[in-house]
Amino acid sequence: MSVFTPVTEVRLAAWLNHYSVGTLGALEPIESGIENTNYFVTTSQGRYVLTLFERLPAAELPFYLELMAHLARHGIPCPAPIADLSNRYLSELNGKPATLVTRLAGASLADPAAADCAELGALLARMHLAGRSYGAYLENPRGLKWWRRAAAEVRSFLDAGQAALLDAELGFQTQHRFADLPRGAVHADLFRDNALFVAGHISGVFDFYFAGVDCFVYDLAVCANDWCLAHPDRDRRLDEAKTRALLGAYHARRPLEAAERDAWPVMLRAAAFRFWLSRLHDMHLPRPGELVKVHDPEHFRGILALRAAPGVSAPWFR
Prior knowledge:
This protein is of the alpha+beta class. It has helices spanning 9-16, 61-73, 114-131, 144-154, 160-175, 216-227, 240-253, 258-284, 298-308; strands at residues 24-29, 36-43, 46-53, 91-93, 96-102, 183-186, 195-198, 201-205, 212-215, 229-231, 235-238.
């Protein structure tokens, strides 16, 4: 369970008096997540998710919350922030910035099939298209600037092989920037556990707190490296059928440009590097918390090694 800031029912009930959501019925810590404190909240009027932000800068939070509200208004099945009685999405609870959003129905998939990847591709294209009218700007908070800083902070913890891979990939990514690719607001963390399904269809996507402005095809690469593996635990190669389903469904709604196809192998490496580096950072430089869940960096080190291997082609759609 990832809980950094405990919240009691008594304290939450008092906080909810500033909202028009009814009286508190139940409070349940959420097991997943490594960045924020999250609880399921049930009231007399509905089901919600409470998030206390642990290390995101307060100045960035409106970008995420307004993006979620914007996408929800445009028919994207994502959490809708709840405004308090002062018409604010963001307030304070136990000394931390906090927000309340709607809770989505459904369950995540441990091992999605090609049809599920197609569902994701179609929804991701809709998200990117809807986000084009979102006017706020925030550079990807886990982009190149953060990579450089985080790499310097974790390097002393690595063995010679890990350090060599870190240095080589950071140098490669520094030389391969794509300023002219289509860009906009991206989720940047849409793993399997951040999407919910009901009866074979996506019923919701959530956890937008790594969102920012970046290349759309990078967002696709993040998804492919988690959803399209030959086997989530045993085989980190990209499954061709799953990858083609993801890309084909996306392309049917937002046609991909030739330059995006050319950048695809580099973006797969960038997406793998980002999560290997962030997991290294969380493992070696943890912060205090109650029963904090830390993901194994080795999973994405293996993915990065495969994506960067000479002569390995990345599946595309015909």
